[in-house]
Amino acid sequence: MFDKVLIANRGEIALRIHRACREMGIRTVAVHSTADAEAMHVRLADESVCIGPAPARDSYLNKAAILSAATITNADAIHPGYGFLSENADFASMVEEHGFTFIGPSPDHIRMMGDKITAKQAAKQAGLPVVPGSEGSIASEDEALTVAEGIGYPVLIKATAGGGGKGMKVADSPEALREAFRLARSEAKAAFGNPDVYMEKYLGRPRHIEIQILADNHGNVVHLGERDCSLQRKHQKLLEEAPSPALNADQRARIGRIACEAIAKLGYRNAGTLEFLYENGEFYFIEMNTRLQVEHPVTEMISGIDLVREQLRVATGAPLGYGQADIRFSGHAVECRINAENPETFAPSPGRIGGYHAPGGLGVRVDSGLYAGYRVPSHYDSMIAKLIVHGTSRNECLMRLRRALGEFVVEGVQTTIPLHARIVNEPDFINGDYDIHWLEKFVAQRTE
């Protein structure tokens, strides 16, 4: 096992990784920007190194500074968390070239899945169902019109190197497609430095279903069930639950089996997530995240498996130690992402935390680095906490979640807690009758 792990991230995920390491007897190194000098993970880590000023490009995205910190602290391995450099193949290569272990998949797999077109091609070859669309990037408006005619309107234009909704446009006619094509390429160029786009059939009311997998270096692959991540605003997830209220046992087993077979064919290692759109009983692969997900706690709650611990074990070369038949799912879990934002306008709300009280009790977990007096910086993502609740049934889970949201106190900044409180009381959500467009409509109705 590793003696010392450097955590190349911040906020709640850095604290989450620190806790897993501490429970395994592994010492930790926290890297931080000047804005995060008083962060909880920095306070708790065995060692800390300031790697630059507040802007992420000068600190958490500074590969050389992170590698230097690993060198001077004699770290054995680097855990990238999620976001920042977690899916940067060049960084993973640099980590290994400098003699450290990268706690994640191989650079080749990160690179393969980092480009939407190569990911889709690899998925098809591995036997995963995909959304009908172009075979590769589309170079011109005329080509876009030809492809759209073949798959039928409406269509979705997406950036090949994109994510988070950037470079993504819907078109329901040839005229709309011309404009969407130009806008998508412009956005993709500005956001990712790569204007390439591709096209998929636009699904009307799909759900966003993702399968959590674990794979070791010995050919063992298991899945830990699915998460329903359909509650999204501007392609950003706000609430996730496991298992999905839309799937039955047969569908769950089928997509889990398909996912494991595909991962085995790819020779993938460590944790990963296969994301699908699901509509009318069919699954369509859209992308793979080659890292730990923000929403991984709901999977941990129903499976009893510590995903960060497993990442660390696999990275040392250890086998999983269990097969698919050994995994048992229990109950239901929901995660609410608590952001420092105005719950109506979603404007960021950085500032100093006054009063702070996290909910507790049976089945309630809060992943957060908040404390009274902490200043939420304006330089990074606005997520400040994750409230995860587990129950023996979905109904029990939702009752417990309402209670926990009512107990959660964060003073000094605005948060999305009131929005979550409204969502979990909506009949559509209670009945599990929602899709990836539901939240946008719900928010729009409240602002009219």
Short summary of the structure?
35% of the residues lie in helices and 25% in strands.
Structure description:
The chain has helices at residues 11-23, 40-44, 63-72, 89-97, 107-114, 116-125, 141-151, 174-192, 249-266, 296-303, 307-315, 394-407, 417-423, 427-430, 438-447, and strands at residues 4-7, 27-33, 47-52, 77-79, 101-102, 155-159, 169-171, 197-201, 207-215, 221-233, 236-242, 270-279, 282-289, 332-339, 351-352, 356-357, 364-368, 375-376, 383-391, 409-410. The protein is an alpha+beta fold and 448 residues long. It has three domains: 4-103, Rossmann fold (3-Layer(aba) Sandwich), CATH 3.40.50.20; 132-201, Dna Ligase, domain 1 (2-Layer Sandwich); 207-447, D-amino Acid Aminotransferase, Chain A, domain 1. Helix 7 (141-151) crosses helix 8 (174-192). The protein is globular. It starts with a strand and ends with a helix. The model has no long low-confidence stretch (mean pLDDT 96).
What order do the helices and strands come in, and which of them pair?
Elements: E1 4-7, H1 11-23, E2 27-33, H2 40-44, E3 47-52, H3 63-72, E4 77-79, H4 89-97, E5 101-102, H5 107-114, H6 116-125, H7 141-151, E6 155-159, E7 169-171, H8 174-192, E8 197-201, E9 207-215, E10 221-233, E11 236-242, H9 249-266, E12 270-279, E13 282-289, H10 296-303, H11 307-315, E14 332-339, E15 351-352, E16 356-357, E17 364-368, E18 375-376, E19 383-391, H12 394-407, E20 409-410, H13 417-423, H14 427-430, H15 438-447
Parallel strand pairs: 1-2, 1-4, 2-3, 4-5
Antiparallel strand pairs: 6-7, 6-8, 9-10, 9-12, 10-11, 11-14, 12-13, 14-19, 15-18, 16-20, 17-19
